[in-house]
Amino acid sequence: MKSRRRILIVVGLLALTSVLARPLIHLLNTAVRDVDELTELPPGYVDDASRLNQTKVADIWTIPVDSDDPERQIAQLLSRARLERRRVTIAGARHSMGGHTIYPGGIVIDTLPFNQMELDEHLGILTVQSGAIWKDVLAFLDRRGWSVEVMQSNNSFSVGGSISVNCHGWQYDRPPIASTVESFRLMKADGAIVRCGRTENTELFSLALGGYGLFGIILDVQLRVMANERYRLEQFVVPAAWALATFDERVRDRPDLRMVYARMNVAAETFLENVIINAFFLDPDGEIPPLSDAAMDSLRRAVFRGSAESEYGKVFRWNAETNLQPMLAGKIFSRNQLMNEGVEVFQNRSADSTDILHEYFVPRHHAVSFVAAMRKIIPRHEGNLLNVTIRAVNEDTDTFLRYADGPLVAYVMLFVQERNKNGERRMQAMTQELIDAALEHEGRYYLPYRLHATREQFTAAYPQSKAFFERKLQYDPDELFQNQFYIKYGPSPR
Questions:
Q1: What is the pLDDT of residue 36?
Q2: Domain ranges of the chain
Q3: How many CB atoms lie within 10 A of CB 371?
Q4: Half-sphere exposure of 346 toward its Cβ, with a 13 Å CA cutoff?
Q5: pLDDT tens column, 347-370
Q6: Confidence label for 26 from pLDDT (cuts 50, 70 and 90)
Q7: Hey, which CATH number is domain 230-451, 2.70.98.10, 3.90.1140.10, 1.10.260.40, 3.40.462.10?
Q8: Mean pLDDT, to the nearest integer, of 184-205?
């Protein structure tokens, strides 16, 4: 009997080893190959998160927060730029990807040190300077029992940058971030400072929100905030064809739903055929977990980066996210914790490739057919798709150059792209075909990413753009504030 028991134990251990061997080898190989090859830019050059826009500029000017009057010095810089006939761009964390913070030979204003904040707990209003990073905002609010109403799913971006692209997140039943902005102070091209809100300078308010820095420098913002809360995660793994019905039947109408997103399977054999719905419900009966840095960064990074160049890695990651991750991460979170993750955890650090974001918005009744189009277009161009996150965004009634002119479904995609001419050519061709598909489905594409859309596609997606640029010339007739986005899609080709 003892001999038989030993044999069974050995067989069981061998079976377990055979099951675990390949995943462990895969993760170890990924970790070994994951060398940080990122290098410093040459002096006088700037770039953005794409690592495809390295450009020489005249000056990188950091706001001198240790001076007695930094705002006066910003105005003096604008005066100097006008005298020197230099263009000005505004940069925070530089997470846009289309040169939105860059003008060749221009002056870049680095806002990051401009990061003070103050909370009015009676009104629930946070006043925050535009250079503040969301990680610091979340920490500041968390200590006081408060949280952000709307922001992206990562904490690495600046407040001014998020306002300038009018970001959205996975906060349920909400419009983009502009809906939470009470007002902001804007320095115009002539150095004058005006307050913009829903009752004063209302047109400038709508233009600068989602205005990509073309109307002036956002100095500080008044944001509505809310109480931090304790949430409980529920997950539903279903075929993509059942996703909307599952959401309607088991998630949508529950009054305690607070945040929700879905993620699609990107493995080749089951490409975009399965979805995991992650829904977070209010769970008030218990303590709110303390805010902390994201756990198990090394493991999560190995799982994610291991899917970049390996089909096995994509399958393994899907299995890990649907089976293993919920057990390791738990089911209870604070609201702040859900947004407290930096892009650095998953960042591509290879010298040969980069990660490129896409985002498309379509009405719900076109969601299924748009996914069917994606399922054909992406493999045809051999796009190396790492991630598809699905969110819902409500109608935006605040911004001029709006992407959400009604309730829409958002598809956020992350691709790996080679950092060479062939990689850029292939990405452009795929992007233009995906944009055409979005337009055919009464949708739009998001503007902070690579400038691969043709002018005709841009105009079709944003028919208000002509009026947008006309107002740009009214408020900034000398076109002091420019960037590569404006160069390509502005009033006239440059």
A1: 92
A2: 230-451
A3: 22
A4: 20
A5: 999 999 999 999 999 999 999 999
A6: confident
A7: 3.40.462.10
A8: 98
What does the pLDDT look like over 264-280, one tens digit per residue? 999 999 999 999 999 99
Secondary structure of the chain as H, E, C letters: CHHHHHHHHHHHHHHHHHHHHHHHHHHHHHHHHCCCCCCCCCCCEECCCCCCCCEECCEEEECCCCCCCHHHHHHHHHHHHHHHCCCEEEECCCCCCCCCCCCCCCEEEECCCCCCEEEECCCCEEEEECCCEHHHHHHHHHCCCEEECCCCCCCCCEHHHHHHHCCCCCECCCCCHHHHEEEEEEECCCCCEEEEECCCCHHHHHHHCCCCCCCCEEEEEEEEEEECCEEEEEEEEEEHHHHHHHHHHHHHCCCCEEEEEEEECCCHHHCCCEEEEEEEEECCCCCCCCCCCCCCHHHHHHHHHCCCCCHHHHHHHHHHHHHHHHHHHCCEEEHHHHCCCCHHHCCCCCCCEEEEEEEEEECHHHHHHHHHHHHHHHHHCCCEEEEEEEEEECCCCCCCCCCCCCCEEEEEEEEEEECCHHHHHHHHHHHHHHHHHHHHCCCEECCCCCCCCCHHHHHHHCCCHHHHHHHHHHHCCCCCECCHHHHHHCCCCC
Answer whether residue 60 shows pLDDT above 50. yes
Q: What mean pLDDT comes out for the span 62-82?
A: 95
The total number of residues shown for the chain amounts to 494
What whole-number distance in Å separates Cα of residue 233 and Cα of residue 244?
Answer: 18
C-alpha Rg value of the chain to the nearest Å: 24
CA separation (Å) from 421 to 60, 354, 426? 28, 13, 9
Q: Are 487 and 105 in contact (CB under 8 A)?
A: no
Confidence tier at 8 by pLDDT (50, 70, 90): very low
0.90 surpassed by pTM: yes
Task: Band the pLDDT of 5: cuts 50, 70, 90.
Answer: low
